[in-house]
Structure of Nucleoside transporter/FeoB GTPase Gate domain-containing protein:
Amino acid sequence: MNVFFKELLQKIIFVSVSLFKVMIPVIILVKIFIEMGGIDLIARFLGPPMELIGLPPEFSIIWATTMLTNLSAGFLILMEMMRTQTFTVEQVTLLATLMLFAHSLPVEARVAQKAGLRLRVTLVLRIGGGYLLAWILHIIYTRYGLLQEPLVVLWQQDTYDDSLIGWLKSQLIALLMIQLVIILLLFLLKVLKLIGVEKIMIILLIPFLRLLGIRKEAATLSIVGITLGLSYGGGLLMNEAAKGHLSRQDIFASLSLLNLCHSMIDDTLIMLVMGADASAVIWARLIFSIAAIAVLVRIIRWLPDSIWDKYLIRWKW
């Protein structure tokens, strides 16, 4: 038991320090950006696409920040916006969908690139795939009147102090809440690992991976990425690809799947805490990812080697 909590404490410290080293500078930069009218600048470019799927233009700064940093930074900005505005469950769910598909791109896109997938493929899959699923969900939710109620969250306040001191206080509270989420999340992940949930997920997912043309050599590594994150799975795939153990279809299919569907446990929990509905961040994301890659691999398998090597896969490590 002592070992359990010692390892948990070490993990909490490592994750928290790594996360806040990124988040705190981002918070300050975003505050400066907002004070300089940056929301209007971003909304001019990303605002119209956001409005097409029923999202307010100001959500564009959340998505842009998330793409460049991580989910928690975007979550923090949403918390800031929700102090003065009200959004529906659908809007937060669609935003969460965009965030889950396209986040931490400077790091994760590079990992996928090093593992063998061209950068252009990663960006199209993650940004385009996320937007496509959000658009589909928007049509469904609007057509059937689903998730149209206002989102009620624990961190909403009746009054808002827009002074610098008030902003600093609100950010401190928000960071403390994020820290609490990190502690609970890592504790839950460790418990799930102890009771064997990861092994169950492997058993359940391997048949689906085979349908996508992912052979056994890459299947287990793909499941690591799906459950724990692209950086973990991509790193393992990078090692196997460099050794020549994987075919180009294994590399393309597994990394494409991981780009659309990774960190299904921890990232999903963060979005659920944010207020997103499970219908999108769990089921729709999983079904869409498997269906999209199943169709994609059947189309590209007929492409000539020159197209594979020039536009899809890189073979030099």
Summary: The chain has a mean pLDDT of 82. The first helix runs from residue 2 to 35. The chain has 15 helices and no strands. The two ends are 42 Å apart (CA to CA).
